[in-house]
Design a protein that fits this description.
This protein is an alpha/beta fold. The protein is built from twelve helices and 18 strands.
Length: 453
């Protein structure tokens, strides 16, 4: 992959012949945002048009652009789904206040997939054939993406996921699937591994969920440790239905320097409590991915044992972790306070480390539609949209991309951005390290552009 170019680099040309510079990718998106920002935050402008399985409302605007939102309203991903939905609605409200996408207001059509792969495929089918949406986006959990993506490919409908799994960039899916708004696990691990191994220790025990997302952590951190002179002392896959963890801690060798944990699901309080009971004050260093504590208050009783430990964050939960006007605008727009919880209800903690991906994905879709000249789901227009998207290279930090600037690799259908390492101090997260885009780059193993449309 090429290194980041200067802000004023010469234009490059995508497959449709359209000149794309780093700045051009967001020219249309950001025009007039400054003037609209205040109105958007206080409820001015056009609100989103929303349909769901339970509440259908007809849009009066002329020819809205219908986006299918596949959301985890129920099941293991419900906490994420709740905040993915709030973030999506906020982004749609802002985009509609700016004139929509190519002058067309966004109409959301929302379907719950239950965080279930079989149901996910059914939702894709329903959104594409019954609701006749233009695109589908929003899916998070890796097993649901893997179960749903083949149907999107069969139906030839663009499918934008907000999942982090390596399944998109690995090439295992199809040309209709993109992940442009959030980095994948392989990139995250590639970026943070040298800091973990260099600052916490090289003899590492890994605890991870027993499915695709966890296997990404297992495989890529193990490879990073080996390449950097480290060692994995034990691999401990945890079934998602597990309720007790002491038996796993008992298998960790006594000379382990670091426990690397990725817990997903409702068992985090039990996990931390039992870890404290098992190791006490003579614990190894501990590094986790914040997936385990998304939607969980860091000051919750039972989490005291995490004081002094470190976490990966995709976007810092606490205000100041990214000190930019773009991040502050985004935080207010999605209704999150300085502590990372709902402005309306401080006990309702957000999934801030992931949900920005929905916001950024919607702006990516907006740019892809407007730069490709997309009009409808005809094969010609869909092909033009996909090829235009594959030609994007840089997504500038700003209102559309508040988490940070990103490099997009059209071969992989995947973006690459910064990562954050934070330390738990006084039951809060303080950013201690931010990686560069280059830190997370890896040699591509796939090229979707070679697949037919």
């Amino acid at each position: 992959m090429t290194k980041r170019k200067n802000e004023n680099s010469e234009a490059e040309t995508n497959k449709s012949g359209m000149a794309i510079t780093r700045r051009a990718a967001l020219t249309g998106t950001l025009a007039g945002v400054g003037a609209l920002a205040g109105a958007a935050l206080i409820g001015g402008g056009t609100g989103p048009l929303i349909k769901s399985a339970r509440a259908h409302t007809g849009g009066s605007a002329d020819r809205p652009i219908k986006l299918g939102f596949q959301v985890h309203r129920t099941g293991i991903g419900a906490a994420y789904g709740r905040w993915y939905e709030r973030t999506t609605v906020a982004a749609v409200k802002l985009i509609n206040s700016m004139g929509g996408i190519a002058g067309r207001p966004i109409e959301l059509v929302i379907e719950d997939d239950g965080t279930d792969p079989k149901r996910g495929a059914e939702v894709v089918e329903k959104l594409a054939t019954k609701h006749n949406v233009e695109f589908i986006f929003g899916t998070l959990f890796s097993h649901v993406v893997i179960g749903s993506a083949p149907r999107a490919g069969e139906l030839k409908i663009p499918y934008f996921v907000v999942s982090e799994g390596y399944h998109v960039a690995s090439g295992m899916l199809n040309r209709y699937v993109f992940q442009p708004g959030i980095t994948d696990v392989r990139s995250q691990i590639t970026a943070i591994s040298s800091w973990v191994l260099g600052n916490l220790g090289k003899n590492v025990a890994m605890i991870y969920p027993d499915y695709a997302f966890g296997y990404n952590h297992r495989d890529y951190f193990s490879a990073a440790a080996k390449a950097q002179g480290g060692k994995i002392s034990v691999l401990l896959p945890i079934p998602p239905t597990e309720t007790s963890y002491t038996k796993y801690f008992a298998r960790i060798p006594s000379d382990t320097e670091v426990i690397y944990h990725v817990m997903v699901g409702p068992g985090v309080l039990t996990f931390v409590k039992e870890m404290g009971e098992h190791f006490g004050s003579k614990r190894p260093k501990i590094f986790g991915f914040l997936d385990s504590l998304e939607a969980v208050d860091m000051a919750s009783p039972g989490l005291e044992y995490l004081e002094g430990t470190h976490f990966w964050e995709g976007m810092p939960r606490y205000a100041g972790g990214i000190d930019t006007p773009h991040e502050r605008f985004y935080r207010q727009a999605v209704g999150v306070n300085d502590a990372g919880a709902s402005i309306q209800n401080p006990k309702d903690v957000s999934t801030y480390s992931h949900m920005f991906g929905c916001w950024e994905t919607l702006f990516f879709i907006k740019d892809a539609v407007e730069q490709s000249g997309y009009q409808d789901r005809s094969p010609k227009d869909v092909a033009r949209l996909i090829e235009t998207s594959e030609g994007f290279q840089w997504l500038n930090e700003g209102i559309a991309h508040p988490q940070g600037a990103k490099k997009f690799d059209g071969r992989l259908h995947q973006c690459f951005g910064p990562q954050f390492i934070s330390k738990v101090e006084n039951a809060k997260l303080r950013v201690v390290h931010r990686t560069s885009i280059e830190d997370g780059l890896y040699a591509p193993e796939a090229n979707y552009t070679k697949q037919s449309l």
